[in-house]
Amino acid sequence: MKAYKDWGKQKLVIDSIEPTHYVRTFLVYSTIKKLAGTYGIKNICEIGCGVGILSSKLGKSGFNVNAFDLDRNAVRLAKRHSKNENVNFFSADVLRMDTKKKYDLVLAVEVIEHIKDDAQAIKNIGKMLNPNGFFLLTVPINEDYRTEFDSRSGHIRRYTEKDLTDKLKKAGFAIIKIKYFNFPLLWLWYFKFYLPYSSKKSKSQRKKLPFYVHLLKIFNKVFLMDLCFNSKKATNIMVLSRKN
Length: 244
What we know:
By secondary structure, the protein is α/β, with parallel strands linked by helices. The chain contains 10 helices and 7 strands.
C-alpha cells in the first residue's frame, strides 16, 4: 500500500489515533477479549496487520499472535516499533501458504475487500483454523458510499451484510455476531473531514500530519459513543463467525 511508503513512521500515529482506526481497534479488541474469556482463545493470526497496532495490543494482553502483511514497508515499521515477544510479524501472503499452523482465531480487519477472489480467501481462512475456531473480520459496506478514496485504497468492493454472510456460510462458517459501526459521529467525521483531508494529501508531495492531530486522543473518547448504535447507515461492518 502506497501510504506506508509515503507516510513512513507517521502511519503509526495515523493508525493509532485517527478516529475511524481508533474506534475500530477498540471494537475488535474488546470483542476478542470477551470471546477469549469464554472460549480460552490463545493463538491468533492477523491477516493484513499493517503497522501492527492491533497485533501489538493483543500481544501485550498475553495472546500469541502471528501477523502477516504483503507490504514490506508496513512490516518493517511494525517490527521496529513493536518489541513484544508474543507477536511475530511476517511479510508474506499467508492465504497462499501451505501452513500446518492452526489458530483459535483469525483476524482480517479491512482486508478482504482488497482481494479479487474473496470467497476463496474465506475458504482458505477456514483451513487455518482449529475445529470450532473463530473468524473475525471488518469490511466497508454500502456501494452508495463509494468515493475515489475506495479506488485509491484498492477497495474492489463495498459489501452488503447479505453478500458477506452468504460467502461466510458457504465456506462453512456459522454467524455469531454482526455489528455495524461508524455512525453517526464517525459518519460525519469520515465524509466531512477524513475524506477531504485524504484527497488533499494524496495530491501533495508533502506528507505531514496536521498540528491538531494529537487532540484527537481527547475526541476519540466521544467517538466511542458510536458503538452504542448498530445502524445500517454505518460505513463499516464487523462479523464474527465460527467454523462449523
